[in-house]
Predict the structure.
Amino acid sequence: MGIYAAKEQYLTNDTTARNDLEKFEAIRKNLNEILGLFSQQAEAAMNEKEEKTKVLLMASDAKIESLNGTLEELFNQNYPLVVGSAALADFTMHLQDILHSYLLESEPDNLEGIGKTFEKTARKFENKQRVLKGRLINDDIKTTFDAIAGKFQEMTDTVLAEKGMFHIHQDSLRLKGDLNRLKSDLESKNIELLEINRRIKDFARNLNEQSQAQSNPNVANAQIILQVIILTGGVVSLIAGVDQAIRLTATHSSQSQKLGEELAKIAQTLVELVSHFQI
């Protein structure tokens, strides 16, 4: 991948990541609202059960079986739902913090550990869901609980899916590394290009001397081509011109053949330089 293609993909990833993060935050906010409703419903059911318990305790004809049954529901169903809803909200906030840490991480080797922490926390959320599911006490709470499960899945999909935020961030760090490498290569090639320019001028001067000494029209033509190369300064012109100069010089004197070989090396360097800009 050339530098332009890598840069374009990097910018595309950046835009996608920003959009996905906004989507994650919107879903998380909605999930927290549903968790808030779930907590309110659980607390209301618990308060109702507490009032019923008080009534039974005050009643002179209250049966022990009824009182025990009410207390069992209070402590084994109502209270765990209230505490569980708070735990789910905590897991959601923790997931948000882990995601932010992941997206801010610039070292690829550290991503795996952060990603596993996210997945482990998501499993804790799901395990807590399974525990609470067996304690649901009315249809309203069950409906809200189902909405929590669906919204949580939607939220984690934005992160863990095949093209989710984790994947995009990994790809962005890879592209950033490629861009840094290509930049370094280009700086090195720039130095080579300056050297090439000096060598071409030397070749043009040598060919001019040959042209004057031998009256060789092919050598003269090659010299003219190289002069045009120097004047235009275009990379495409350099490659095309050097190639033609090679053909014109390669079939003549040994000195011309040596010049042709040198020109071939120059052409190869130029091709490598241009490859860094491929789309």
Observations:
- Residues 3-58 form the longest helix (56 residues).
